[in-house]
Design goal:
The protein is mainly alpha-helical. It has 2 domains: 51 residues, no CATH class; 53 residues. The chain has 5 helices and 2 strands. Strands 1-2 form a two-stranded antiparallel ribbon. The mean pLDDT is 77.
Length: 144
């Protein structure tokens, strides 16, 4: 039986114990890819819910899972940024030990700026909204 059919039976309350075990094994073998899998995993964490699902508790579980995923992503990005800074520092010390190979201040600034740009692009920060300075019927002046 397909996973979608098992999920439909699960959500309608018509699933049998062997089918439920098959569904649980299939869902736990891969990370959640869509809302159905995320919902099933969140419900399945609360085995004490025999008579029904507490909707608020379910929403809290989903929000907790999403918060953890975002936190892990931020931690991973910070690790990349720290590793990049360590590599730049070690590389500068190893490959530029003497004054004859010393980078100029502008070159050092360019390296740091490009590294920070790369980290900020990986973090996918939202674009700032334009700020309206003046507006009337004929003209709008704004700064991006």
């Amino acid at each position: 039986m397909k996973k979608e059919q098992l999920l439909d039976k699960y959500y309608s309350g018509e699933i049998e114990t062997p089918e439920f075990e098959i569904l649980r094994e299939e869902m736990s073998s891969t990370p959640p890819k869509d809302a159905d899998e995320l919902l099933f995993n969140a419900i399945n964490q609360h085995r004490h819910l025999q008579g029904g699902i507490n909707e608020q508790e379910l929403i809290t579980s989903i929000e907790t899972i999403q918060f953890r995923e975002k936190r892990h992503k931020r931690i991973r990005l910070l690790r990349y940024a720290a590793s990049l800074l360590v590599l730049l520092t070690v590389g500068t010390l190893i490959f530029n030990p003497g004054s004859k190979n010393q980078l100029s201040t502008d070159e050092q600034f360019d390296i740091i700026a490009s590294s920070l740009l790369q980290v900020s692009q990986e973090m996918e920060l939202p674009e700032p909204a334009p700020q309206i300075l003046y507006e009337d019927d004929n003209i709008v002046i704004y700064v991006e």
